[in-house]
From TrEMBL:
Amino acid composition bias (Polar residues), ranges on this chain: 900-917
Organism: Lactuca virosa
InterPro entries documented for this protein: WD40/YVTN_repeat-like_dom_sf, WD40_repeat_CS, WD40_repeat_dom_sf, WD40_rpt, WD40_WDHD1_1st, WDHD1/CFT4_beta-prop_2nd, WDHD1/CFT4_hel
WD repeat residue numbers: 57-98, 141-182, 233-274
Region (Disordered): 342-374, 895-920
Protein name (Swiss-Prot/TrEMBL): Minichromosome loss protein Mcl1 middle region domain-containing protein
PANTHER family: WD REPEAT AND HMG-BOX DNA BINDING PROTEIN (PTHR19932), WD REPEAT AND HMG-BOX DNA-BINDING PROTEIN 1 (PTHR19932:SF10)
Lineage: Eukaryota, Viridiplantae, Streptophyta, Embryophyta, Tracheophyta
Lipid metabolism as UniProt keyword: no
Domain WDHD1/CFT4 helical bundle, chain residue ranges per copy: 716-820
Residues covered by the WDHD1/CFT4 second beta-propeller domain: 424-707
Main subcellular location: nucleus
């Protein structure tokens, strides 16, 4: 057969680098859409007049890796290396929304037949099924170990097929979200640069799945049994990297790494036409009505191959397959062709279909699978990883099917209304069970607890990161099958779930040091099981499936049993404080978890804090605990770390976001944190947790608030400024708590606060310099008002003077003068004189008054921190002598004695009033009036 060649025109400038490019043809055949993984823009070309300038959509920050058009061509979806999936109106190209985000680049998108469901996958672990009506994530399908390179919805809306970079194909059943078939190593591996991808596609009638094979061929598999039907081979000399069925399914086009495109007759299993290109064709699309094929190569050049199928053969659009529109979608809960879609995405009226179903013939195996659940049930729009296993629901569904077969079923028999599923309980620092491998029962800043199952029992070991700090703990043989643990300096606690009626849930505590020989203890629970455990200074806590919070002493005494308001999610302890997270209400329809936390002081039996737990939309809680300083902290599945602060009445502040680091193939398994660093284990994709052997290496990441891109260009300084303010607020709260408890030993905290204030002032001065260089003078004035120390304000004045900004220096001087006047007024108002606890006679009144102890506080120059005077530490010392000029003594009413004692006149004294009436001259001093008083007294 003669090989022809054709010329292509440039659509994207890849700068001479091979990149994966995508091409689509809309339903009207008037527009061709192209994208390149090296270009952040999407091009919409005029298919009728290719010479016209295309329309560009520039909404992504990085290269566009994949495109998808809805079946009616009204909606365009794009995925990118910037980890976002965006929707646009088509053909206008108006941006609609960021429908979802991933933590790693997206590689594949696909719409279902009705266009209301979008499947997205890539380097992340999982395929997201997104409801395009409300933007909610309907389900996450997990099972691939490599990057997902291609996704295809079954035209009958029963199955979804996907292939990963390792050549593994999985066929998913949409109704249940489970894996129907897994075909390993049947497709070639994807190159590391992702210039070409493994490909698959359903035939238009949905009866066959075509997959690019290992032997430069294309293999066809049966839709239900996944058995190999036949193979198209013998013509490509290198692996097939893309394939596409014609609209009628009679032909299939294949592109290979040998730079050829072949057209195959599917029935005859032989190629009928081919084209040779200068570069590898990475994507193709058939013309919706006509005999043409649009192609694009890895260099970003595209073209249209006319008269693809010989004129003597059937047109590629003639005699297309017809699908039964009455069959249930299985996931979308409506008929695509004849049902009206409501705003919630459900059917407006489905009674007729149920009646017709009950009057029809007995259902086959496939149809029974369609009607296993009611079409309006919300049970199919949830993340399968979050679904609790409810055995009763499965049994009820089987019984309903049996009733249908016997003709006894009614429409209410199969209705199961359930909302979005809530997150299951978890223990921080635990890794999942891996057969034959050691795993972590606990991993925190102190050490780790590992276990490995062997011959029906497990071997548990406890290791400390600092071997010189922690005690040597002997290994333990576990006959209970513990699945969770917690560790602190005093001991360790273990728990296991129920394993049948005989093996009850058990809680066991092992102290590290004790004067008694048999100091460990255990508890057994009937008809309930432990969901989370926590340790404190002298207590052990366990939360059970009955929403009971059980608190024990470290000796095993049962102290309290508290009923919680909702199902537990997790728990953590630190010193005297116990933090518990529970569900406050069912999840939202968008699958957002509604969580609540409370912090309890166990020895006092009080509740310190209670509130809502903040989470990134669409995420779940993956870690929860305290920092080394005792700050409550959470980490969600979207990679956002939050710390609870008393600011703004108690709020969560994000201190770290994994998306800011832009690491495409890394995830973070949190261990703990301190003031400045996050301690975690870096996990390479697709792993989400570390292996226990070899022991993982902790990585320190700087805390970085996810700030917006500022026009100042000083994000690092702004980040330091906010974090320092937060630390200062926490120290102030601790000082206030100590003062409320009557504890005056706050010197160390005051010193720490002063050091933070000094560091904060240095940061503010650098920000002021940035503002001056960036001509942001108003912002500089706002910053100088936040300086704590007078010395810092004078430094700011010198700074702007050196930068030759006299107007700004004058404003800074005005701010300094106002602050000094204000501080002087405050000192005048609050300053009192401390003397020994002896009686003294005033010079202006015969009354005897006792000198009280100095208990008033003097404000520092810092606007955010109050510090006591040094004289407050001792009541036996004489008060500090305040040396003032005569003019200040006159204005403040102070009298300076020879022995250093100072007495303050009270403005309410009647003698002062009469004296003021008699002496109207403003320049008379207090000493003159004193002399006159002594003469009169003699």
């Amino acid at each position: 057969m003669k090989i022809r060649s054709m010329k292509l025109r440039e659509a994207h400038k890849n700068n001479g680098v091979s990149s994966y490019c995508t091409i689509l043809w809309d339903l009207t055949a008037e527009h061709i859409v192209t994208a390149s993984s090296s270009d952040a823009s999407i091009s919409i070309h005029d298919a009728l007049l290719p010479s016209n300038t295309p329309r560009f959509l520039r909404n992504h920050r990085d290269g566009v890796t994949t495109l998808a058009l809805s079946p009616n061509s009204s909606c365009l979806a794009s995925g990118s290396s910037d980890r976002s999936v965006k929707l646009y109106k088509f053909p206008g190209g108006e941006f609609e929304s960021n429908i979802t985000r991933f933590t790693l680049p997206i590689r594949a998108l696909s719409f279902n037949r009705s266009g209301t469901m979008l499947a997205a996958g890539g380097d992340d672990d999982g395929i997201k099924l997104i409801n395009t009506i409300d933007g909610s994530v309907a389900r996450v399908l997990k099972g691939h170990r490599g990057s997902i390179t291609s996704i295809s919805f079954d035209p009958k809306s029963e199955y979804l097929a996907s292939v990963d970079s390792f050549g593994t194909v999985i066929i998913w059943e949409l109704q249940s979200g489970t894996t129907l078939h897994t075909l390993k190593n049947i497709s070639h591996n994807t190159p590391p640069d992702f210039t070409t991808l493994s490909a698959l596609s359903w035939s238009p009638d949905g009866e066959m799945l075509a997959v690019s094979g290992l032997k430069n061929d294309v293999i066809m598999y049966d839709r239900d049994t996944a058995e190999k039907l036949f193979t198209l081979r013998g013509e490509h000399t290198q692996p097939v990297c893309f394939l596409a069925f014609s609209l009628n399914g009679k032909y299939i086009s294949t592109s290979g790494l040998d730079k050829q495109v072949l057209i195959w007759d599917v029935v005859k299993k032989q190629d009928i036409e081919r084209q040779k290109f200068e570069e590898v064709i990475s994507s193709m699309t058939w013309k919706p009505h006509g005999n043409a094929l649009a192609v694009i190569d890895v260099m970003g050049k595209y073209g249209v191959w006319d008269s693809v199928v010989p004129s003597s053969m059937t047109s590629p659009t003639e005699g297309g397959p017809t699908l039964d529109s009455k069959k249930s979608d299985g996931l979308l809960f409506f008929d695509e062709e004849e049902k009206e879609i409501s705003t919630s995405g459900s059917m407006s009226d489905h009674g007729e279909e149920e009646d017709s179903f009950m009057n029809s013939e007995q259902p086959t195996r496939k149809r029974l699978r369609n009607f296993k659940y009611d079409e309006d049930s919300d049970d199919d729009i949830n993340d399968m990883s979050l679904l609790p296993k409810v055995e009763s629901n499965k049994k009820r569904s089987t019984a309903d099917v049996a009733n249908m077969k016997n003709g006894k079923g009614t429409t209410t028999d199969v209705v199961m209304i359930t909302g979005p599923k809530m997150q299951e309980a978890f223990q921080p620092g635990v890794t999942p069970v891996q057969s034959g491998k050691r795993r972590f029962l606990c991993y925190n800043m102190l050490g780790s607890i590992t276990t490995m199952e062997h011959d029906g029992y497990s071997h548990i070991e406890i290791d400390f990161h600092d071997t010189g700090r922690g005690p040597r703990v002997p290994a333990m043989t576990d006959y209970f099958g513990f699945t969770m643990a917690s560790l602190n300096e005093n001991g360790s606690v273990f728990a296991n779930p129920c394993k049948g009626e005989k093996n009850m849930s058990t809680l066991m505590y092992r102290p590290f040091r004790s004067w008694a020989n048999n100091s460990e203890w255990s508890m057994r629970f009937e008809e309930e099981e432990v969901k989370a455990v926590a340790l404190g200074t002298s207590w052990v806590a366990a939360v059970t499936s009955l929403n009971f919070l059980r608190i024990y002493t470290d000796g095993g005494l049962q102290r309290h049993v508290v009923s919680l308001d909702g199902p537990v999610v997790t728990a953590s302890g630190f010193g005297d404080e116990l933090a518990v997270v529970t569900h406050s209400s069912p999840s939202l329809p968008s699958n957002e978890q509604m969580l609540e936390f409370r912090v309890l002081n166990v020895p006092n039996g009080t509740q310190a804090i209670r509130g809502k737990l903040a989470l990134t939309p669409g995420s779940i809680l993956t870690w929860f605990g305290f920092s080394e300083e005792g700050q409550l902290t959470s980490f969600d599945s979207m990679g956002v770390l939050r710390v609870f602060s008393n600011q703004y009445g108690g709020s969560w502040f994000p201190l770290f976001s994994a998306s800011k680091l832009k690491k495409k193939d890394e995830s973070y398994w949190v261990v703990g944190l301190n003031k400045t660093n996050l301690f975690c284990v870096l996990c390479k994709s697709p792993d989400k947790f570390p292996q226990a052997v070899p022991k993982p290496v902790l990585t320190l990441l700087d805390l970085s608030i996810p700030l917006a891109s500022s026009d100042l260009g000083a994000e690092a300084l702004e980040n330091e400024f906010i974090i320092s303010n937060m630390h200062l607020s926490q120290i102030q709260r601790k000082i206030e708590e100590k003062e409320a408890m009557g504890d005056d030993d706050t010197a160390s905290l005051e010193d720490e606060a002063f050091n933070i204030e000094a560091a904060l002032d240095r940061c503010i001065l650098r920000l002021i310099a940035s503002c001056c260089n960036g001509d942001k003078l108003v912002r500089a004035i706002e910053l100088v008002k936040l300086l704590s120390l007078e010395k810092s304000v004078r430094g700011a004045i010198k700074l702007v003077t050196a930068l030759k900004l006299p107007n700004l220096a004058e404003r800074f001087n005005t701010i300094l003068e106002e602050r000094l006047l204000k501080e002087e007024a405050i000192e005048t108002k609050t300053e009192t004189v401390c003397v020994n606890n002896t009686t003294t006679k005033t010079f202006i009144s015969p009354e005897i008054v006792k000198a009280t102890e100095c208990v008033n506080e003097v404000q520092l120059t810092s606007p955010s921190f109050v510090k006591k005077k040094a004289t407050e530490n001792s009541t036996t010392k004489i008060g500090k002598v305040v040396e003032l000029k005569d003019t200040k003594l006159e204005s403040k009413g102070l009298v300076k004695k020879s022995n250093g004692e100072v007495s303050q006149q009270r403005s309410t004294n009647p003698f002062v009033k009469s004296l003021n009436n008699q002496e109207k001259e403003k320049s008379s001093s207090v000493f003159d009036s004193l002399k006159k008083f002594k003469k009169n007294e003699k």
